[in-house]
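Input chain follows. Return structure tokens only.
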Amino acid sequence: MWRLIVCAWFAASGLALDNLYSHPRLIALSPTHHKWMNTTQVHGLMRDGQRFRDITDIQELLYGCSQTLSKFPTTVSQQAIVNPLLKQVSQEAPRAMLTNFTRFHNRYYNGDWGRQSSEFIYTLVRNMFPQVNVTRFQHRFPQASVIARVEGHENNGEIVVVSAHQNSINQQDPQNGRAPGADDDGSGTVAIFEALRVLATSSLKLQRTVEFHWYAGEEGGLLGSADVVQAYASKSVIADLHLDMVGVPAQPPAVGIVTDYTDPDTSKLVRALTSAYTDLPTRDFQCGYACSDHASWHEAGVRSAIPFESQFIDYNTNIHSAQDTLNTVDFTHLLKYVRIALGFVVEVAGTELHKTLQQKASESMHSHGELVNGVVYGILTVPAEGNTVRLDSNAGCVLTLWTAQLTTDRVSYLRHLNIISRDGFAHAISRLKLLETAHRFAWVRPEVRSQLFWLLSELVKVSAHGVDQVVLVLTRQVRSGDVTQGNVKLCWLMVRFAQANYTWLSTFPVLVATMVYMLGRVALDHSRIPDLHTAECELATRLLCEQFHECCMIGRDLVRMLQDVARIPVFHDLWQDMLQQPQSLSPLFTGIEQLLRTPTPPMFLANRITYEMEARLRFILENLPATSYSRNLMWFVQRYLSTPESESLFSDLIRYIIGVFHPSNAVLASNVVPRYVFLGGLLRFIRSPVVAANAKLALFYDWLFYDPKSDTIMNIEPGVLIIAQSVDKYTFMTASFIEFLAYESDAYLPELAPAIRGSIRLAMQDAVEKGVIPSIMPIYEHPRIEVDIRQNLYHLFPQLVPPAPEPAQSEASTDDAEPAKDDDAMLLDSTDMLPPVAVDSETTPEPPKPAVELPLPIAMPQSIQTVSAAPKTSIALDPVSRMFQEEFGIVDTELVPEIPTDTGNTNGISDMTAEGGALEDAALVASAEPLPEISVEQVLEDTSLWLFGSTLQTFVDSVAAAEPDTKQIGRSVKEIVYMFAQSEASISAIAHILASIFSDSLDMEDIETNAELAAAGESSDGLKHDVLHYILTAAAEYAHMTEMTNSTRRVLQLLVQLTEAKVDVGFRWLLHSVINAGKPVQYARYVDQYAEGTLQAALVRDLGVLQEQFPGLFYAVLPQIYAAFPDAFPGCRGIVKSVVALIDQPQVYRLSALIARGQLQLFGHRQAAITAIIGMTLESDAFEQVCFWQLLNAEVGGDEARVAGIAHYLLLEKKLDPADNSEAATGLLALLKATQPAPSLLKSLFTYVAATDNSDVGVDFSGNALTAWLRTSKAVLLNALSELAPSTLSADMVQSVVSRWLERYSQQLDDKDRYEIQQALVPKPAAPVIEVPDLSGVERSSEHRPVTRSQKAKEDNERKRRISNSQPISRQQSHQETPKRHKNSSANSEGSDSSSDVPMTRGRRRRNGRNLTAGDDNQSYQSSPILSSASSSD
């Protein structure tokens, strides 16, 4: 004990301790050879290179400390986690640290140099890694050991140690000699420091704690490690990896594995790590007793291993001398041990959780798939910076592996994905492709898209197979002609991903070509977004210049794309090289003709059409007849082509229809709309002559370079048919196309004009030979085809038509020649097709001449010009548009359907109220005057705002700050609203100031996400709100008051004026009032502030906005809003329109269930409102109609009165044609089947047949309904048939309809059904008039009531006639044959034979003493004819 006290004193005073060693020390030279020695003897062991341990103070450890060995991994399984870490390993930090570390004279543990060197390590670790807990471990000598601790996240009480020793010694003069110790053990010291750096700067979260130890006093007999091991005797240490001398390799290089005094399993793991993460072999050898500090752990019973720099322990002869310097260290070799250390840390410290994940993933393919699904979902939805994720039982089986709450981030989820993947990420990639091909990908949140691209970048880093296909799919979701914020952000993500992974991208030729084509097509859309436009153009030109040979696979549409962008500066030089120096781009590229002769593969043409657009387009082209496709086409144009920017899509759509969609023979033979008719209908919506020119070129582009060996006739067929089929009615259209072909054959590429004419000629000849049309002579000989058109035909197709006579020259024809060219804006000469320079808009610009003379002057399409859409009131229609107006009955240009510019209206249904009229703007105009157009600065000068002082100006300035603080602005705006409500400040002025902040760059709130988080239990502090949220929160404090105070009125009028200023207040206030506050009166009072506003009109507007912006939230809150305003919903067309606009089948089921439970009502009981809603939906998309009828059936089905009204409306007023309105016909049929048959329904069906002139259409529909009723409600149907009032329907008409029904459906009806139907149609005779008979001359009978002789004779004759004809007696007739008893004769009938009073039935009837059985009836069923009206009258 005294020895320890003295040591502590000398250590505190900084004095050398060699004098202390004058006292003997117990030195272990082997496990069994222990010897007491003084300082001189110990130094002698050092000089001789003898390995030893100083065990004077740790004898108890040798014999009393033993750790329990934990289960240990011996194989490598975490490469996916380790490999990203290895990419961060660098020589920079180890080289810099070792340079300074070797400047100490020596690092002798018992001297001041040793103390300073340990302080150097401590200070460096503390300063560089403040997140790491670093401590000094003091010994009885000056040099301290240094311990850096990285806490574990699950089992932080279990410790994994990575160690090295820091001291150095000169073997000849231990205390004073120069000892840089670069290899022994400066190399191990800096190696574990680099491992710590990589680990500390990563986001890796290990399960166990990892400690990095730099031991003191190793050369003095493992003194430092012995003290540390003794101090850790009560702790759970899993293993130690010790690095001692790792910088000087032997030749050939190898990793030496020490096999003595180490743990075999740990050494086995080190061998596996070496093989996995280095290119070096391993060599086993023995180091001897007390070789290094790992021995201290081994003696304590803790697993340990030591990888050495070579297989020779004494290979580096410079150690323990002044020659062990920095220049002897091979840092490349040293870093291999850093890789081994990182692998060791991940395998051992994280093995428990990883094993659990792996076991779950290995249970079955189903478990693996669920696990991957959950992890991928986590990556895409967890914020990048990490957050507390609330997990539930529905999030996938992956969630069972963690507790209810887990702090994680996307990197953690990615690490889990690496662990569980068993198929090279194939399942994860398939899930990503499924997400990207979803029709509603455009509704995916921006943050999810960002996470998606981050995940793709990480998968690229680990070389996951199939990522290129995922990116290829994503390029289709970048919409052409769409400059909305969501699409622009998607473009940015795509460009940045390609820039960051350019080397990887360059290895996939198809992806390179697709990326170039996509970027070229969207670059023009973003000309007003300079940064994005520049990035797209630079990336596209870089790919073209460096990968031009791969881009040539695009074919001729690459030329078409480059013509559009050739005026953009970065593309100009490339275009010139293609024309003048083609081989400078690729040795295999011979010229532009090579591209033009190559057909564009369908995959590139389809790339510019999103999956949603493709599905809608194919539905029309594969299912709809030519007579009813127009309304679907109008809907398509309204959704995708309604803005000026989207007009570039016309050409892409035409190229898709021509080059991708090739209908099957079955479709060609059916009545489905032909492609050429659809294309003509599409052309009528083009309003710009430039777009029309590009569309026409897209239509005939393949004609210009047609080759039967490489091109397909299906690309030519639409153009051939549109020319041939238009000649009779629309001769001008045929002439227009022929002129276009004639012009382009000479002007498109003058150097190749003969070849182009030959291609056009070959295309038409091939079309004639293959039967597309029989001949072009009907076109040539048509009387309305002018001579010049015939000359063009002969010029184009001399082998198919004779020469045309020369046109007669006259002044009139000469004068008309030039205007004829102007009439068709699509026929432009080569100079007209060059883009114009910037000139005064009031002057007519002259086309500029090319700056460089081109040897191959290809005409440039005008699509590169900036052309605004023509005003709706004056549309200049080309001949094609005029023709299709006439085809669809649109004669006057004023009747051309207007295409709304608001892309939010995603269907063809106009906003209608239940009252039958459109929602006029006046219905929602506030009583206050519109806000004047003045600046905020002028508003602030309003004298009514004096009481605000500088509050308003400060508020405006805070909004204009470079990085506005939304929360601070929100608090300020609440104070402004409070002051405003209690003052007389101008409402317009405050509205101006508040509205101004919404025109700036402040982010708007994602209320859908906030609603989901709130539902999951997230506190309000964790939600991200916008400024409008704070305005509404302040307003709510006044709006809910019981009485309508002045403050309440002012606040509500403020909200109204904000609404007029185009701020989306309405739907937000609706949600705040009904959902958040649960006080619908707040919203009702807000609506009352409108001069002519109604609650229903306001709900239509606000629910429509909610549905457009947040469709998921719209359907979620719909029941609550209905509960708040139940009278406003039924029969409201605007609300129904919003409900069906973006509905899907799961939502249909949910809403149907709510309707069934009485928690939602959409249609009401007013017949006029229901029929108005149905009429509105007849022009909707087919899918929306199907969903609409399912909802209608859920509410109305079974209600005879409402169904009868619907049937009358559709069948008799609308003359429903199932071929044109198949969705409505199907829905009505389902309604009828769900309702009991009634005379009113039968009347509509029978009258419908007559209204359709007894056509098969009417009979088929009515027969379907009658047959369905016969199967489900037979008795009710027969009764309804028998109750049809003859006064409303003639017997002949009913008999005719029923006869045709029975005839057409004879296979579905048996004889019994036919017989019963016939019997039901027998008219009921009038009830007999019973009078008191004259008893004189009348025979009496004891069994029957008295009748006259004439009556009796008539009844006997009738009975005999029926028996002879084998015709059964009906129930009504049997009752008629037995007249009712007199009331006063009932008592006399008692005791008589009861069988005489039983009515006759089909089962058993008494006739002349015999029973008629069912068998007899069956015979009569087969022999009974359909009763005629004459026989019925009998």
